[in-house]
């Protein structure tokens, strides 16, 4: 098992924070923009160009691009078995942001799911970020 120095651990957690925040902000902005655009039910590329012309949707896509870059960086520092469970907190935060910012209704069973995700994130956060050696090859 590999151990991180305190500085490396702090950098990993900071990057994790950026991944979570950019996911929440990007998805909320994208959803807000797409509500303004309306339903896209055709395969016409022009409908999607119109969606990208919406400033909220475009900003959401830009921030989600930043999210992907940060996620790549995080996956280069930490195990997938750490990254995905810990960054799953963004799912709960997106639902909460949707409720308060976009006025979406969240059912009681949905709230239970949010609590369960949060408990899982806390449990996963207690594990080391990297337990394997950095290897360029996947085992077969």
Task: Break the fold down into its secondary structure elements and pairings.
Elements: H1 6-37, H2 45-53, H3 55-77, H4 80-87, H5 89-101, H6 108-125
Helix pairs in contact: 1-3, 1-5, 4-6, 5-6
Largest sheet: none
Beta-strand content estimate: under 5%
Overall geometry? globular
The SS-based structural class is mainly alpha
Outline of the structure:
The protein is mainly alpha-helical and 140 residues long. It has helices at 6-37, 45-53, 55-77, 80-87, 89-101, 108-125.
Q: If you had to describe this structure to a student in words, what would you say it looks like?
A:
- The mean pLDDT is 88.
- By secondary structure, the chain is mostly helical.
- The chain has one domain.
- It has six helices and no strands.
For the structure shown, list the relevant keywords:
single chain; 140 residues; mainly alpha; 6 helices
